[in-house]
Amino acid sequence: MNELLPLLTYCALMSGTPGPNNMMLVASGAHHGYRRTLPAILGINAGGAVQTFVTCLGLGVLFTRWPLLHAALKLAGTVYMLVLAWKLAGAGAAQDRPPERLRFAEAALFQAVNPKSWLKAVTLASVFMPPSLGLVQGALVVSGVGALIGFPCVSMWALFGSWIGRFLKSSGRRRVFNAIMAASLAVLALMLLR
After folding, report:
1. pLDDT digit of tens for each residue in the chain (194 aa)?
2. Between 20 and 30 A from 65 (CA), which of 58, 87, 147, 157?
């Protein structure tokens, strides 16, 4: 329990605080509702679990040895978030259509360029691997706990978006909401470059 409580707390904090995944889920929840956002939620958790598992098995060492690789992934993630922000900002401008919803595979693959997901995976691998278990078993425990804790945390963001969506009946309100979410995502992306 002494090892599990800090792991649970860290996973809850990383999954529950604002980041690229949660900003996208708020926007998706607002436009498409929780049920239609569920594939993205599951994709985020599955992608994060796989990312954590392979990082625990040794991928995180690559970032330590080759910082340029980490910098390249960080830049790719920032560019991708800026593209998503651009798309979100333009959503609704033409024929008042909502932005496309993020699919399972897209959400899972996004974790590969999401700097916050990498930070979480590397920290889990370097700080929270249980020394009493073997490498594979420890990686399974850490990645499994991350996914189990992550699901309700990111779900809250999508549910929050669904609740906000009730107030976005007019196209003007939707455009303002899209602009705010796009700006938030862009600011977050630029902050990650520091």
Report:
1. 567 888 898 899 889 888 889 988 998 999 899 999 999 999 999 999 999 999 998 875 676 677 787 677 777 777 877 887 787 777 654 445 666 788 999 999 999 988 889 889 988 888 888 878 888 998 999 999 999 999 999 999 999 999 988 887 777 777 787 788 788 778 877 776 66
2. 147
